[in-house]
Amino acid sequence: MRYLTARKRAEGKGAAHTGTEHHWSMTVSAVALAFMVPTWLYIFGSALGQLQEAVVAIFARPFPAILTALVLVVGMRHFAMGATMMIEDYARGSARKIGIIFAYSLSAVIVATGLFALVKIAI
Amino acid sequence: MANVKRVERPLSPHLQIYRPQLTAITSILTRITGNALIVGVMLAVWWLLAAATSPDYFAVANAVATSWFGDLVFTGSAWAVWYHYLAGLRHLYYDAGKGLDIPTAEKLGWACIIGSVVLTVITILLVQ
């Protein structure tokens, strides 16, 4: 017989204490990226290997610039959360904390750098 | 009396003799590809920053991005992103409670492996 009621068990939101929030966030960003990534791959792949003027001209256009910004913001959040999941599986204690902070910091640096480049190209 | 000599039993799950299964390998590859993609993203963003900065800086970054090293990273990243893409779709399908029987799960594993290679080749042909 269970001494905890169904409600009491649900209240703590399980061992993670955040319920399915992490999983649902990954699902949402995965679906968003599934729609954006194929087109972005084509744009980036076409730009790669071209002269600087051509590259700047491509990313100065609204669609490639906005899509790249979205892929960066959504993708790096997806990465940070996924890397956190991996670190939580393989590391513990201080290594875990440092690893998670590093993953989020690296993602933030990449997003900031990418957005700065896009803004500089746009203006 | 309790036997003081510890019995040397094999440890589960016998990793040395455990036959690797397609479903397990395709699952761990999802994690490996997803995390490894950070290398390609860093190179791509650095290249974009250089394009936004100056001709000299772009010359350096573009030389790296289009060198054999750049080709290796971006070709690997193209495969990694397509593998992660298909495995992610498979994950969403599993989450819906479908495709979890062994024959279907194995077919989906092969679909991820073969599909990712085919999509990588198509991508490279399209953008070259």
Q: Look up the CATH topology of chain B.
A: 3 helical TM bundles of succinate and fumarate reductases
Largest interface: A-B, 35 and 34 residues
Q: Approximately what portion of the residues of chain B adopt beta-strand conformation?
A: under 5%
Helix content of chain B: over 70%
Estimated structural class of chain A: mainly alpha
Q: What's the CATH class label of chain B? A: Mainly Alpha
Tally the structural domains of chain B: 1
Topology, number of strands of chain A: 0
| Whole-angstrom Rg of chain B | 22 Å
First-residue to last-residue Cα separation of chain B: 76 Å
CATH architecture of chain B: Up-down Bundle
Morphology call of chain B: elongated
What can you tell me about this protein's structure?
The complex is a heterodimer of chains A (123) and B (128). Chain A is mostly helical. Chain A has one domain (21-122). Chain A has helices spanning 6-11, 21-47, 52-60, 62-90, 93-122. The longest helix of chain A is centred in the C-terminal third of the chain and has 30 residues, at 93-122. Chain A is elongated, with a radius of gyration of 20 Å. Chain B is mainly alpha-helical and 128 residues long. Helix content of chain B is 76%, strand content 0%. Chain B is built from four helices and no strands. In chain B, helix 1 (22-53) runs antiparallel to helix 2. The longest helix of chain B is centred in the N-terminal third of the chain and has 32 residues, at 22-53. Chain B is elongated. Chains A and B meet through helix 2, helix 3, helix 4 and helix 5 of A and helix 1, helix 2, helix 3 and helix 4 of B.
